[in-house]
């Protein structure tokens, strides 16, 4: 018997069916150990020794793998074909060896780019050893991220109260967003006018724009005022038109390469409205279903057999005329591209998108299928026509230019449908994709209308998730497996927010970026971070030693941190006030001093730091106690409309409009405008900007009937409640791990979950055996533990319990996250338990009442004795 270790249970089940009875396939469920989130997990002074920790869930997985290995003759590590997959195999093998379970059994590593029978069979025939340089690159990245986070974050907490942690790649990505916002704030619009004419020839209308005036070719911004535009309009209306030249030029448009992780996320965002994280969820399911190849890649090449299959599918679907004489070979131009494996493509080129059952998976698969076939098709052939037309006007020499194009051979555009422009890639849209009438030199078109229009130059657009990922890829920061996660982390830390798909930096994010730019400038330089990524690639290629890279980085980084440790908060504030003055104190329309205190009239407003973050305060404090939130200062107190509000469409069954609204507790959906309309809040992680009518109707239709329980005959339903997604049967609730499963859970899965709940494994069971701490952290203020309670997972320190966000798995909680949650909860409750828990001990209060006078005197003296030192301490801190 051969034991095969993969990452996910879905993969394990599918691969098991391909390998047969001589193999046992078991899942590790991703990474089995990580660096403990506490000081000392990486020791630079001990040659960067790393201490690993196995969490509770992984301990059970490893025990299952160990038990299975005892009865196996061989161990095969078959985790994903990238750096992370290599690391997981290394971790599993290292733990098994430490437990002396491997002994003399042969161990091999196999990789496959698709979960198909042929790919699995071929991988098993070509085993190899674990790629040590790839593991070294993983270790270097993990140590770098740990050292930056655990060195920089405490400095942030001390110097910028209310701020959260900082990461190596996240900080640079945040700077990208903040730099773009600063560009927008500094931008000043410039007025300009466009001049054009609608002409007619041979009964067909066409447009021509102003090209030259008095022999000088005009630029877009040359006509600066309405008066200039009116003069030109009058000249055009008084003139006669004659075609001076007609230039017809055939051009070709080549298809784009198959998808990488980045380009798939960008295209899915712009065309399907999927967020990068949603795109990767869907791609993961398609991969595990065997529909597509591995979806974390920056390679754009395809295997020879895949190219041959694509050409065969093109010949069958479109004919041989659409096939180029030789296959197309693509070379990656992206910075730091590893090209370790293929581009994202279908595993079966003849599998049509209509064969995919899930609606969203079908859309994404269709995107991949069309892009892959298009990449191996002939170019589109387009005839581009340019006509110059003289305006014979008194005293002015004015020329117009009309441009048009027509597709003479569809080529790769046939896979999208030439007529359906909205179904093409964004770059396949031609601004001149319109046909001109048959013009000839000497023709005299007739004027239908002279057109002038006022315009203003526009600031650079804010990044969307897709365009930010594209920028990250261009400058070489991050990797395919980390793009979506990096953006999500910035959202979770409240450093950025989404407004109608645009990324807007929060004030907290801008302050952190300004701090890092002033005091850790090198760390947030694009070139420095990209250079580190290049070094990691050199490590994975075996050209650099990973500890040498760490040593060079750490020596430089510690010099910076040593300089910052003794920095006074006043110095930090001075630097931030200067860096953020255009944002915090924008110029006023009346020209008055934007920093003058509106309350006392003599004080100067400046950035202040309080227990819960930054705010604006007056320099005359405490005589003047004027304060203002940063958001109010930046917007001048103007209110902004809630993003995303509007009508998504009409419910085909009821005929009522489906409305997206924003309320006190966030965005929600509403069906119609009746007296008691049906409403539904958006689940955690759902963005209003990417919400479709189909998804909205699914949400409004909850709870969903799953079926009748085979034993009781009573109905089972699925829905979303206060504590997340669930299934319900006869008054019994059982949790679902993912919101998406509410819409897909079947009867067998529901019955199984209910049975587990009945056995005591459910989260809400009153008689369930109490669960021990999932993980604990030692801290100066007392032990912190992560537990799973009746109402969900939470973190505990002393008497303070803080609920864990639904997006965070209990086993993944870090000390930094736990401290933030504890601090936020303590701030709300004054460090005490919620009132409803304290009420349970109300009855014994009668005995204490008898001793009330004596009890009041003693504490009064203690309080008085301690008051002065406490005040003195505060005064020293303020100084």
Summarize the structure.
Helix content is 38%, strand content 21%. It has 25 helices and 30 strands.
What does this structure look like?
It is built from 25 helices and 30 strands. Helix 5 runs parallel beside helix 16 and helix 6 packs across helix 13. It is α+β, with helices and mostly antiparallel strands. The protein has seven domains: 129 residues, Rossmann fold; 159 residues, Topoisomerase I, domain 2 (Orthogonal Bundle), CATH 1.10.460; 140 residues, Topoisomerase I, domain 3, CATH 2.70.20.10; 118 residues, Orthogonal Bundle (Topoisomerase I, domain 4); 51 residues, Bacterial Topoisomerase I, domain 1; 67 residues, no CATH class; 30 residues, no CATH class. The longest helix is centred in the N-terminal third of the chain and has 28 residues. A hairpin with a 2-residue loop joins strand 28 and strand 29. The C terminus is likely disordered.
Biggest sheet architecture: 7 strands, antiparallel
CATH topology grouping of the largest domain = Topoisomerase I, domain 2
Global morphology:
globular
Q: What is the CATH superfamily label of the largest domain? A: Topoisomerase I, domain 2
Helix content: 25-40%
Strands, total number = 30
Q: Tally the helices: what do you get? A: 25
* Mean pLDDT level: 83
Low-confidence stretches: 335-339, 419-432, 634-644, 761-772, 831-879
